[in-house]
Amino acid sequence: MTARHDITANQGETLNLHLLYTDSTDTVIDLSLYTAELQCRRSTLDSDKLLHVAGASYAAKGITAGATGLGATGFGNIDSGYSGYTGGLSGGIWLNRNAGNTGGQTGGIYIFAGATATSFIPNGKHLYDLELKHTDGTVTRLMEGRLDCPKEVTR
Q1: What's the half-sphere exposure (Cβ side, CA atoms, 13 Å) at 140?
Q2: For residue 155, is it within any domain?
Q3: Could you tell me the CATH number of the domain that includes residue 39?
Q4: CA 25 to each of CA 13, 18, 22, 28: distance values in angstroms, whole numbers, following the listed order
Q5: Consecutive sets of 10 residues in the chain, 155 residues long: mean pLDDT of each?
Q6: Which residues contact 123 (CB under 8 A, 6 or more apart)?
Q7: In-domain check, residue 94
Q8: How far apart are CA 9 and CA 126, in angstroms?
Q9: How many Å apart are CA 105 and CA 19, to the nearest integer?
Q10: Is 135 contained in some domain?
Q11: Which letter does DSSP use for residue 98 in this model?
Q12: In whole angstroms, what separates CA 31 from the centre of its chain?
């Protein structure tokens, strides 16, 4: 069952989020055979991603942020082969990591989006989900909800 959790990501502020993935008996689940993606859009029907964060147990894959086609957009390194403009963005998802991303924690999911990345997210109430994909192809929508992004005054 997908968990429902609303997130506030203030524009221009670092976003740190840590989750612990467990089964119904509160036993942690090893995520070493998984990759993860978090995507945020204005609506479920919108094709433009406002935030896209990805990663795996061995490394974060990167981040993209901003409304494509609507002006300023920052790009990170979502695909390992991407070597284009990075826009100074930092972020990613690390699996089997602790809350500070300083060590391992089985079942830990550490999501990070730097201040520059969140500054590209338009002001408003958006939707997001977080999915885990196993190497066998199984996809689990772990969490979903609203991502509120209050406009930054100081810029």
Answers
A1: 18
A2: no
A3: 2.60.40.10
A4: 35, 20, 7, 9
A5: 94 94 96 95 91 82 61 42 50 90 92 89 95 96 97 83
A6: 11, 149, 150, 151
A7: yes
A8: 10
A9: 11
A10: yes
A11: -
A12: 16
Pure H helices in 1-99: none
Say how far apart CA 142 and CA 106 lie, in whole Å.
16
Residue 63 lies in a domain: yes
Which two tokens mark 139?
A: 């996809």
- d(CA 4, CA 79) in angstroms, rounded, equals 28
Least Cα distance to 29 among 155, 138, 148 occurs for 138
> Could you give the number of structural domains in the chain?
1
User: Residue 127 is part of which domain span?
Assistant: 3-149
pLDDT at 74: 44
With residues binned 3-state (H G I as helix, E B as strand, rest as coil), the percentages for the chain, rounded to 5, are 5, 45, 50
